[in-house]
Amino acid sequence: MSVTKTYEEINRKLKEGTAVVLTAEEVSEMAKECSPAEIAEKVDVVTTATFGAMCSSGAVINFGHANPPIRMEKIRLNKVPAYEGLAAVDTYVGATAVSEENPKYGGAHVIQDLIEGKDIELEAWGKGTDCYPRKHIKTIINKDTVNEMYLFNPRNAYQNYNVAVNTTDEIKYTYMGTLLPKLKNANYSTAGELSPLLNDPEMRTIGIGTRIFLGGTEGFVTWQGTQFHTTKEKNELGVPVTNAATIAVIGNLKAMSSEFISAAYYEKYGTSLFVGIGVPIPVLDEDIAKRVSIRNEQIETTILDYGSAGTPSLGRTNYAELQSGSIKINGQKVRTAPVASLQKARKIANILKEKLQAGEFEVTKPVQMFPTGTSLNSLKEVEEEN
Amino acid sequence: MKTVKKRFVLNFPPQSGDKPLSYRLVKEFDISINILKAEVKPGKTGTLLLELEGTKENLKKGIAYLEENQVQCQPLKKKITFKQEQCINCGNCTGVCFTGALKMDRSNWELKFKPEKCVVCELCVPACPLNLFTIDFN
Ligand code: SF4
Ligand code: SF4
Q: What ipTM is given for this predicted complex?
């Protein structure tokens, strides 16, 4: 009989301090000597993590009402436009929104400044209504003056991502970093065998309501992420070979730390936000044990030419090769560089492991599982009727 | 004898390529040469970024010799510094650093900076998403 465990059993062991928790890298190492059945028996939870730039991130903020009150219909935070269509004093500031005065300062920087307790200039305008007579306000806010302030990221933690290269004669500045001409470098972004959605590729334990580590505190998975694509090509181990599923996440920004949330600016691209995410995966059975045992050499990804229109594929590689420092593309040796921090991802996986072992963190049974068989629509251009 | 290492930007006039300048630097002044960066356009002026190693005395003589031969020698005044304490070890800068001055330490995935390998190409300055590199003029 193969082992099966319930969430309740695992949580009980976590509370008692008897659960065995390993990071995804540690379990991959263990898998060299143990079978999935043995791992299912010995290991209760595996921690996974990632720390990368995730453009689809942002924060919901409620400023509180001024006296006299204003219905904010145009909002600037340190000159960065924030969304004005959410009642009177609610807003959403997106990581990639950018200051009208400084293209290198964006919503991501507002979020980092808020976490760090810095003062932010809030300026807002309204037309003035009978119930909200005020037309303009310019003041200072910070994390202690606002009411709620939470990170709500529609698309994070991509399950795999492609490698970016450039075959043209010119340098290309992209969200995957600076790509030197003529295949002089190859940039990759996923944490490989440590990456959350690569350790549970079918998302049997990750769903709506999953408790995660987010930016230094506890957060939750709220929905499947946008551009959630579960029918991409998979290799023989069931791992997609390019960017596929994603998660939407939420967490209290006031409790986060800029050690795990960091604003970024990419030359000639714009701003983005590095987000640290950790996901605990309960080892419920042998199948999950097998999934979390996956090693870098078994996770393949696709090399795309970001210099050419349509980003054509130049072949495949795997994370063992990528992390070795160079890969071969069309017989040519190309230097590789990560654009996401494996050092931070490891730190997160270890923090989460310690919290679980100390009984300070639970594994959560999703309230609802993600949809299956999804694919993406592309944006069609409709010809205007005369 | 104690030797020192110094970096120079050399500007060659057109058609100076046929004189065995570097040969004589090595032979006569016992200076060892490390070419860090070269930009030579045929028939036009050329620029070299060199690291010269020799005794103080010999370096002086060598530079004087180069200048006699219409080669301008300017000590390299720029250097790259970075705010290590704010580094998130993302690796973006290592992608552009073709000299290997910036590399990831693959045991702990932290950034390692070896200033002695840096040729001040400045590519890492815009490549760092946290804007941690600055060019210092001394
Ligand atoms: S300037 Fe930056 S990229 Fe260029 S060699 Fe020095 S460290 Fe490397
Ligand atoms: S790009 Fe900047 S933050 Fe990233 S590793 Fe290099 S110096 Fe550190």
A: 0.93
